[in-house]
Write a structure and sequence with these properties.
The chain is an alpha+beta fold. The chain has one domain: Cytochrome P450 (Cytochrome p450, Orthogonal Bundle). Helices cover about 50% and strands about 10% of the residues. It has 17 helices and 13 strands. A 6-stranded mixed sheet has the order 1-2-3-9-6-4, with helices on both faces. Strand 7 and strand 8 form a beta hairpin. Helix 8 packs antiparallel against helix 11 and helix 13 packs parallel to helix 17. The longest helix is centred in the middle third of the chain and has 30 residues. The mean pLDDT is about 90.
Length: about 450
Amino acid sequence: MTVPSAVRPRWPGEFTVAIAREPLALFRRLARHGDVVRFRAAGRTFVLVAHPELAREVLVTQQKRFTRGYAHRSLKLLLGDGLLTSEGELHRRQRRIAQPAFHRERIAAYAATMSDHAVRWSDRWADLVRRTPGAVIDLSAEMTALTLGIAGETLFGTDVGDRAREVASALSDAMRAAPLVFLPIARWALRLPLAVVRRFDSARDRLDRVVYAVIAERRAAADAHARGDLLSLLLVATDPEETGGEPMSDAQLRDEVLTFFLAGHETTANALAWTWYLLAQHADVEARLRAELADALGTGRGARAPTFDDLPRLPYTRAVLAESMRLYPPAYAVGRICIEPTTLGGVEVLAEWGVITSPYIAHHDARWWPEPERFRPERWLEPPPPDRPKFAYFPFGGGSRVCIGEQFAWTEATLVLATLSSRWTMRLLPGQTVRMRSRITLRQRLGARVELIARD
């Protein structure tokens, strides 16, 4: 065995600052040094794993040798022991309890809510354009607000819209502490007398107050069990492997609600924002997408809203999203901590070392993706090369911790894109530079401003 080659910072503390401020830029730089690269940041040793087969080792084959990464440990300060942060038997039990809420028939039921919200958003844009011809919107803000409404209704139901917005606002305030939260020293840093720490604590208190109140009201409601939202399903769900098992406690429900709410709108919003950004620059792709939607749904104001049953008729729409998530995967990195010595690619990885796999790095690797920087959705309609590893593309993670809401996200993104693209096109405003911002997810740093243009 050999020790992985190390990359040294150009100045003391450089990698610690990079991990807190813009980790993806650091990962891209390190990946140029090989498939397994060691570095030090925040007083800890990390290994960046760039080869898809080694990512599979970490996430699947040797997953028992690894536990959640430092960022997930820190997120426990906000999300508690939800599916994103829990470990071991607790994680397995919670996943078994929650899994039925994401079965195909449940997602089909959620699909109507997704399409309804997209139609209402299209109508909102129509009002905006009537009042202000040539209206300009910010893609990131618009898609975040749209997916927030969908997440709120599918999670809480139709009667808690204001509270869903309050949860989103508090989560946003808490995420402003991301540079501190994602450091391995987060638990210590969040005790400092800083304004950002006070906002984090206040936001966490607001989240607890709102979510526990909704849970209490739902438990007391006579019709709670008959509702179809995710919270109602979780209230009565039990572990199928336990005879006479108990439903989740209020604390467990709180953690899962916040986890699903954050993951359920943040990642999809970013995927859609990047998709619109790419479409605004590629008229040929947009034309082919428009042709598929016209054939399946009609055009302009005469277009009908897509349904769950329409999804098989929209292969190019899904290909556009797949290619967008290849270029801009919302979950751009997956962190783990080695808990016992092992080897990856013939090199030694020691206990307590952080291990980072990156969908972004794999998705841009020219060994697996010809013309990796080119936006070409057609590649998803072609037979994949036989030598392309499975983990050359893993926007939803992998192994036993693969995203439980993957099919929910595919359904939502496809229905929203189909609904809005059949009625609208967008023109990117000249003179702006749209950059990536890698924190919890891969966002547009300052958004992307586009002009709304009705198709008819």
